[in-house]
């Protein structure tokens, strides 16, 4: 690749298309990525576009009713906006040198970001049973990008699961008949790997230590949430499993439950397994407990004295504390930091306080005066001077991480 490049990052969901365009410079073998344009398209009968430029004179555009019914029309509009004289940064789409795609599931085969080929596409199709809600949309995003930009523009798949490929078998195997793993790939894969990896690197740099010498617990807390144990810079365990449903209580996902509950509900209520699956993924978590999946609304209710909102936040915090405790043991004898990131992790000091309370006996002490402020920089420390463990709030940037990996793969 040349020194000056335009890298487009795409995250295609079932009903959304998120995008971010970066200007990449590689002077003296030091990669710098400057965001130029970002936005999101909500696809469907009621479609909406939010598009904004970055830099010295940022601009924002919203199209409340764009009439975009599929990914092709959505990406076609995105390319037009990127080339718009007033709101874009490109003279033509031919300036896009590479595209990085977020792909949720890479199964066991893909342990690094990979150039997209026909063989890779076939492997993604084969992985659909492992991620039926995510991989089809990711595949469609790649196909549409190829159709609109042609084969001359290299594309790279960056997998959510890749970072967790370093987990040992003792962490990723379930207590199920072994042939289910061998024949069907039933195991823990983990997700949010791009975010966990990104914030771990930022924290290591902040602490002035080589990443390969750092042990971290990274808490990616958002509508989807997961926790990872990182030892010597590598993932050794994580809370999400075969699918993103396992682990923490999330916005609409239940997280860990007794495996017998679906069978119990099927027998006692007559719910079908498809209905139970939908409930666990879309109607549980914060939404199921409180009627609201938005943590901001729950915090407003908590401040107003709503005891049920307080209970919901306590359930969320309890599950996070439970995983932190488990990973403390796995990372013995040294923990170099606990990292909070994601929409909730970065912005909810109320939940950080609940998660970090009464942990003095394991050397973890939060400074509430430092913690109870908004994140105004890429990283801030919130531990007390009495704490033996750094407590960091780190702003994640999954799109930037995808752009970095795309650059490295295409450059070869």
Automatic annotation (TrEMBL):
Entry keyword annotation includes ATP-binding: yes
Chain sites annotated for binding ATP: 18, 220-224, 294-296, 343-347
Pathways involved: Metabolic intermediate biosynthesis; acetyl-CoA biosynthesis; acetyl-CoA from acetate: step 1/2
Catalytic activity: acetate + ATP = acetyl phosphate + ADP
Site positions for Transition state stabilizer: 192, 253
Keyword terms: ATP-binding, Kinase, Magnesium, Metal-binding, Nucleotide-binding, Transferase
Top enzyme category: transferase
Gene3D superfamilies hit by this protein: 3.30.420.40
GO molecular function: acetate kinase activity; ATP binding; magnesium ion binding
UniProt-listed GO biological process terms: acetate metabolic process; acetyl-CoA biosynthetic process
Active site annotation, chain numbering: 160
Entry binding sites for substrate: 102
Reported cofactor(s): Mg(2+)
Binding site for Mg(2+): 11, 398
CDD domains: ASKHA_NBD_AcK_PK (cd24010)
Pfam family, one: Acetate_kinase
Enzyme Commission number(s) of this protein: 2.7.2.1
Annotated PANTHER family: ACETATE KINASE, ACETATE KINASE-RELATED
Family the UniProt entry places it in: Belongs to the acetokinase family.
Protein's name according to its UniProt entry: Probable acetate kinase
């Amino acid at each position: 690749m040349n020194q000056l490049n335009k890298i487009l990052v795409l995250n295609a969901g079932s009903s959304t298309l998120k995008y971010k365009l970066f200007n990449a410079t590689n002077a003296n073998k030091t990669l710098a990525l400057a965001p130029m344009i970002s936005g999101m398209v909500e696809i469907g009968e009621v479609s909406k576009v939010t598009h904004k430029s970055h830099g010295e004179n940022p601009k924002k555009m919203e199209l409340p009713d764009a009439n975009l019914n599929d990914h092709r029309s959505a990406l076609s509009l995105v390319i037009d906006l990127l080339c718009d004289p007033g709101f874009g940064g490109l003279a033509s789409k031919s300036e896009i040198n590479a595209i990085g795609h977020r792909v949720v599931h890479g199964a066991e085969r893909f342990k690094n970001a990979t150039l997209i080929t026909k063989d890779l596409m076939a492997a993604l199709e084969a992985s659909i049973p492992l991620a039926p809600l995510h991989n089809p949309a990711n595949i469609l995003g790649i196909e549409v990008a190829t159709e609109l930009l042609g084969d001359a523009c290299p594309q790279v798949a960056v997998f959510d699961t890749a970072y967790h490929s370093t987990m040992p078998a003792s962490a990723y195997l379930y207590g199920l008949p072994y042939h289910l793993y061998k024949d069907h790939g039933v195991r823990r894969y983990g997700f949010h790997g791009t975010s966990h990896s990104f914030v771990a690197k930022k924290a290591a740099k902040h602490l002035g230590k080589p990443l390969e010498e750092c042990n971290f617990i990274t808490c990616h807390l958002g509508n989807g949430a997961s926790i990872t144990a990182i030892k010597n810079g590598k993932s050794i365990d994580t809370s999400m499993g075969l699918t993103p449903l396992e682990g923490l209580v999330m916005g609409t996902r239940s997280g860990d439950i007794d495996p017998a509950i679906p069978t119990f509900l099927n027998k006692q209520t007559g719910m079908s397994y498809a209905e139970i699956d939908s409930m666990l993924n879309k109607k549980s978590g914060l939404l199921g407990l409180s009627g609201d999946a938005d943590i901001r609304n729950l915090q407003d209710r908590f401040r107003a004295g709503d005891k049920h909102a307080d209970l919901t936040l306590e359930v969320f915090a309890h599950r996070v504390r439970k995983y932190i405790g488990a990973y403390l043991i796995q990372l013995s004898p040294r923990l170099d930091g606990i990292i909070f990131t994601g929409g909730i992790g970065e912005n909810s000091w109320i939940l950080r306080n609940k998660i970090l309370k009464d942990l003095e006996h394991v050397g973890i002490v939060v400074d509430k005066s430092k913690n109870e402020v908004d994140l105004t920089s890429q990283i801030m420390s919130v531990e007390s001077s009495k704490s033996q463990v750094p407590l960091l709030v780190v702003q994640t940037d999954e799109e930037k991480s995808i752009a970095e990996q795309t650059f490295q793969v295409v450059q070869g």
